[in-house]
Amino acid sequence: MSLPRREFLRRSAGAAVAFSILPAAARGANSRIQVACIGITGKGHTDTLATAAAGGEMVALCDVVNPRRPELTRRKKGKAAGAGDTILDRFPAAKFFGDYREMLVTHPGIDAVVVSTPDHHHFHASLLAMRGGKHVYCQKPIAHSVWEARRLAEVATQTRVQTQMGNQAHAGEPIRRAVELLRAGVLGRVTEVHAWTNRPIWPQGMKAWPAPEPVPAGLNWDQWIGPAPFRDYSSALAPFNWRGYWDFGAGALGDMGCHIFDMPYWALGLGAPTSVEAVSEGSTEIAAPNWSKVTYQFPTSHLGGPVTVVWYDGVSPREGLYRNPPPERLWEADFPTADHVFRRFDLLVVGERGRMFFGRSRQDWVFKPEGLTAGFTQTPKTLPRVAGSGESAEGAMDQGGGPYREWIEAIRGKGPALSEFGQSGPFTEMVLLGNVALRAGRKILWDAKSLRVTNVPEAAPLVRRAYRRGWELE
Question: Domain span at residue 80?
Fold first, then answer.
């Protein structure tokens, strides 16, 4: 049963007072890191198992769906339900909750929290956990609005907890080695970045909300809605297609931008853009567009000079042709077909010395002109590596490697988690500003210090969203 709001706020205040006595940095320093997972179906299923494999001890599990009702959840192909296949069966000693607010103020033994909910819950779950002195691993993007991303980074600093965003490849060898090479000057000063994805692979461009359906038994729909505006249940929203609706998700850009932009944003130290401009097809008041092109302008980078960063989503073949791809001038002379570019890579970095075609889960990158990397083979490894990550953090997750191990080890005081909120907070702001431009319908000029769109004051609600009654936070 969920706590009444007054009782929840009273207990939260008490927890905050108690936390002020014990610094968060001291929590979880022992070998037993007691973890609670919020969202344990879908992606949460993977996150929970990987965190346990990395050394986390599961003491609490939370979901608005009964995990024993597989028809209410989305599973990857080949992952059929069966006896002993639910998270509840894997961790029978963990206490199950239907409301993470109740869990965070009533369970006495939680050191760290994994947040694997739909996007619109990321801020509330992460903020409440950090206020209670708990370390946080949150799936990307860590917030649903730009203001939320800023606030989470601030609170992480104030509470001194260990945090990590779930853009898994950040912990892998391909991204870390590419960051080192770019910083060493393999391309010289970088002037352009082009990033693309085949997403959305879910519906977008909807003009109306789907017809209401009866809420299935085993699903707490009011809790699923949480801080978002109330909408009637539909199987067209949950468990998967919420990603295309602005109330709950962040579209293709929010879903994949935190993966694909990660390497150049980190390598170049891009910070905040000064302007963002977007064009799209099918964007509506309620849903993200069928495809979009978003152009960010950054005033400088670690390597100096301005940088133009361009995002293309919906880059997929239609009738033998790719739609919405980067300009042919950037790649057609070097690859026989578009397939060789857009299926193999997801990023192109353009510098004064040449170009780099990059994929975050592999290391067979292509540099043009050939021989561009001569003299850079001995570039030192300046970034820490994560044990068990190998070629790709994504490939090591089932063995407890990648970002999960990096986070657990950071809690133990054995090194930093490099996608912590001080890094991933500003990065999430940058990604979500593209959605602000898409929804504003015009070029926006951005004042990062004041968190304000200076030329479109009516965009303020897109920067900081309102919450449903009963979900307000101080």
Answer: 5-168+398-417
